[in-house]
Amino acid sequence: MNEPQQQPNEPQQTPTFGIEKIYVKDLSLEIPHAPEVFLSSEPPQVDVQLHNEGTTISEGMYHVVLTITVTAKAGEKTVFLAEVAQAGVFQIRNLPQPDVEPFLATACPNILYPYARETVSNIVNRAGFPPVYLAPVNFEAIYLQRLKQAQEQQQAEPKIEIAH
Question: pTM score, two decimals?
Answer without folding.
Answer: 0.82
